[in-house]
Amino acid sequence: xxxxxxxxxxxxxxxxxVVVLEDDAALRQQILLPALRRHGxxxxxxACAAELYRHMxxxxxxxxxxxIGLDHDSGLAVTQHLRxxxxxxxxxxxxxxxxxxxxxxxxxxxDICLTKPVDVKVLSATLQSLARRLMRRVSRVDDHATTAxxxxxxxxxxxxxxxxxxxxxxxxSEQCVVTLLAQQKGQPVPRESLIRSLSHRAEEFxxxxxEMMVHRLRRKVLxxxxxxxxxxxxxxxxxxxxxxxxxx
Length: 248
Description:
Helix content is 49%, strand content 18%. The protein has helices at residues 8-14, 25-38, 49-58, 73-85, 99-108, 120-147, 172-183, 191-198, 207-225; strands spanning 17-22, 42-46, 63-67, 89-94, 112-115, 152-154, 159-161, 167-169, 189-190, 231-234, 238-241. The strands form three sheets. The protein has a five-stranded parallel β-sheet with strand order 2-1-3-4-5, sandwiched between helices. The longest helix has 28 residues, at 120-147. The two termini are 19 Å apart.
């Protein structure tokens, strides 16, 4: 692998970016954000779900801390939405110690559920532990990618073939994105470039559509081939394929 090619594990661990959704302004601004910054996290706060989504459109985050009331449907809806669109780590903070509520949060897609009031040292340690788990997951994808030299595009780029010869038919959007990523030979492609390749009206294109398309493509390839396509997020940039793809 060329030296200039980015390691996904290195990209992941350069800086850990956390977004904290907490509607209690004092708790968010005076306790959670300062404490997490002191523990070395790059943290962005949000007072509501809409603000959270705006932040996520502007940049990528590794972990989301959701300190919203799980006794309301909105809390579970945010958790489900985040889990549906990405592999982001999700930590839920709830003032309800009821185990059933915790179960709801975990079933909705949360990785960890903590009860308020939460000790910031415990929260920090929890985020670090979750980060290590996420990094190992990314590292396993990297390890797989080092042996996945046989990925290729055929049928004019409309079919992706795994190293073991299993084929996946691509939609027009998937074909466009995979071809563009393959041409960059392991270098990250900015989200803006991918969006421009998908739409003539890039300013009207919802970036969530790109994230959902990538998420579904990964799942489709895994389901149809049993192999993970090494399509990785380059935080703050866009996406990359950490292996060479032939035939494009």
